[in-house]
Amino acid sequence: MRLNRLKTAAAVALIAAGAGTAIVPANAAENNPAAGPAFTFGVIGDIPYGAAEITKFPARIQDINADSELKFVAHVGDIKNGSSVCSDAYFEHIRSAFDTFEHPLVFTPGDNEWVDCHRTNNGAYNPLERLDKLREVFFDEPGKTLGETMPVKTQEDLGLPENVRFTQNRVSFSVVNVQGSNNALQPWSGLGKTAATPEQLAEVAHRTDAVLAQVRETFSDATRRNDRAVVLMTQADMFDPALLDAALANPETMSGFREIVQTIIAETNRFDGPVYLINGDSHIFAENKPLAAGSPWLQVYGGGAGADGLQRITVDGSNNATNYVRFTVAGNSADGTEVLSWDKVAFSG
Fold first, then answer.
1. What structural domains and CATH numbers belong to the chain?
2. Are residues 94 and 30 in contact, defined by beta-carbon separation less than 8 angstroms?
């Protein structure tokens, strides 16, 4: 993929002035495959982190709102840092900020707002209670996005309204709740636990089964519709380079991701088109093919065939969250490996 260039949100707003794009229902491309101009969407993650970024967050949202060509925006999780309290008041504060988005906003929770809330400096909460609260605050209208309304398919019937999928111009999008901290398997040490509890294991098993089902359904429907590409989004960086050495020494440190990665490999290899994985979690922008033949990550996740067709993009976060990533989906006539391209767009201040 081409070298990404940094540009200011103000410049994007100027270019886009007067050229706003109407919001199209999620199934428009499926109903009319011949219709399909190029479109763009934005992705952020691991923001806001800490008091200074919380103060800047409304301005960050306004910078994104100024990019009138965006079809939708995705936040791939972590709405707070890992050492602050997971309070109801904070959740409500961020929900109020999310409501100011003028584009449809797709949000998947991150580990900092529930998985890690057992930590003493997070309030020593039961993480599963915090997950329930997140669903109450942010997913009170399942099947609708935050911000501007866009219909999405959800797994509300399985108790996971945050898992959503939708289609735009023969590109299938699937956003799933996959977490850092080994997909939420690390012990709740802040609550005095030294091993995963039965309720914790049950949640991980149920959520992972739901994720696997949605990923498979996404690819199955994309094949049936002759979609050009599949885009998966998660919070967890399942290929964090900072964790590779430890994972090679002890693959069990990444065991919570194994079934998910193996399913992504199988489905990518069956699908006749490019697959993109967009994630946050590790905070440093990256673009690579972590499951290509010869990748050491294949050893971590059980060996076997790789998936050369998977392109991964990690968005900047934490102290690096000075931009959003603006993805461009090529017009309907474009197939092959160049369906998606992307740029980092700097926030204005």
1. 6-346 (3.60.21.10)
2. no
Q: Which pLDDT value is given to residue 334?
A: 65
Task: Give the amino acid at 226.
Answer: N
| Cα angle: 149, vertex 55, 101; to 5 degrees | 10
Q: DSSP state, 27?
A: T
Tokens 């696997």, residue? 212
**How far from the centroid of its chain's Cα atoms is residue 323's Cα?**
16
Polymer length of the chain: 349
Longest dimension (CA), the chain: 58
Q: Contact 145/105 with Cβ under 8 angstroms?
A: yes
- What DSSP designation does 49 have? -
Angstrom distance (rounded) from CA 256 to CA 105: 27
Do the beta carbons of residue 156 and residue 163 sit within 8 Å?
no
Provide the pLDDT for residue 97. 98
Distance, in Å, from the CA atom of 233 to the CA atom of 278, rounded to the nearest integer, reads 5
In whole angstroms, give the CA distance from residue 94 to residue 135.
Answer: 13
Contact 164, 175 (CB under 8 A): yes
Which token pair is 84? 């602050």
Helix (H, G, I), strand (E, B) or coil at 114: coil
CA angle (8, 14, 20) in 5-degree steps = 115
Q: What gap in Å lies between CA 161 and CA 203, rounded to an integer?
A: 15
Identify the segments of the chain with pLDDT beneath 70.
1-36, 334-337
Q: Is 293 exposed, middle or buried (0-12, 13-18, 19+ CB in 10 A)?
A: exposed
* Burial track 80-99 (b if 16+ CB lie within 10 A, e otherwise): bbbebebbeebbeebbebbe
The sign of the dihedral angle between the CA atoms of 256, 259, 262, 267 is negative
Report the alpha-carbon distance of residue 325 to residue 206 in Å, rounded: 31
pLDDT computed for residue 322 by the predictor: 97
Please give the pLDDT value at position 336: 65
CA angle 180, 75, 151 (to 5 degrees): 120
